[in-house]
Amino acid sequence: MRSLHTQPSSATSALTLIRSQPSQYAVTAVAGRKYLLAPRDLLTVPRLNDVAVGDVLELDNVHELGSREYTLRGAPYLSPEVVKITATVVEHTKGQLERIVKKKRRKGYKKTIQHKQTYTRLRIGPFEFPHQPQQTHSQ
Q: How many Å separate Cα 15 from the centre of its chain?
């Protein structure tokens, strides 16, 4: 027998097992790209124009939620009732200066374009599980 852990029978039991683990991760889509996130991560994404510094965003496109030993995958997304992930806008920043050189040989044409790419930095908040199963007390 290769596996040391039992397979969860339902999504709620899998969620309970994931919650009991010391660290969790999530795969979410932000600005059209997928990112592997953990609580307290600092995420740099392409500039989000419609947000201001200090705004709290709710990441609702969660593809996968898991821990070291258990994983819960959505088809294609997990329901917002399963997990709630928030991100706070920390800053709007620019990347390093990039130089693009265009040249045509033997024509005397040479052009240099410089620009800095704009980014938004997000601080990922703790993962919240809105509907926690009721604990039964046996006597």
A: 18
